[in-house]
What does this fold into?
Amino acid sequence: MDSDFIKNLHFSRLRITFQAAEPILLPVFKGSTFRGCFGQAMKRQVCRYNRKPCEQCSLKYECSFSVLFNSFALPHNDNDDRKVAKQPHPYIIVPFSNHKTYFAEGDSFGFELTLIGNANSHVNNALRAITAMGDIGVGKEHMKFRAVSLEVLNTDLVYENLGYFGRIPLIGYSHLPIVSANDKLCIALQTPLRLSKDSKPYFDVPEFGHFVEILLNRLMQLAVLYGDADATIFEQKAQWIKGTEHINLHMPNREFSNQTRFSGTQNTKMKFDGILGNMLLEGNDLNKWIPLLVMGSWLHVGSTTTFGLGKYTLM
It folds into this structure.
């Protein structure tokens, strides 16, 4: 199997720490809240035509807000052999992992922001938006906060302070820790995993082939749309799926996560359902899928990844 498209995928990762300027109440799962505030700040920073819908804007393929938050597909692009209006978003927001919801004045909170492929050309506008988020505030009361720390992950996978003219390193497969599976591997889900089957949400224990196909679709799309991979890589899908039927996947501790979020765009509550637990893999030659699984552990799998869902570690 040709894994060059995985090895050519690059991303950057920032860690942003905020400090509450007043008491703040946040939901348990904060990804949606941070995404909404980040989006508002980005639009205020870059939008030239505030009253025009993005779909009608001549800059919809260039504007930083539109590229990150709308991700309109260019008219000539094929996305997994289908003409689509939008493509996968090239960023991921992962809140700091804790279930704390009340933050007194002076308390800290924050998130990690991953920018994928050529979305890194918009990093300066993203940084300006991040520093402006606190002036917009979060929640119905627009509770205020301030950015107190901006760090960047270097190619040694260590966070360091981002200077005023700091360079944003791009991280690729060659920088990631080596994993060897042999005949056993554990995929430990850190945030809810949302899968689909036959265009419907799927919350049962997936077969390994189903998991690989979902992950493969995501990484191939990201590599083509935000990297330099050619669309012919989709022809390799069958090679990656072959043999998955011999790998046993079971989840002795599967849990159902039932969460909701409020969508300001659609003015309604939306479900965040997913599964949590450890996926235990057993079978010969698991190393065949290691490049795919390693990159997925950094770029997530399933739907709603922009809010931080579908995060896992390999054990």
Confidence is low (pLDDT under 50) at residues 79-84.
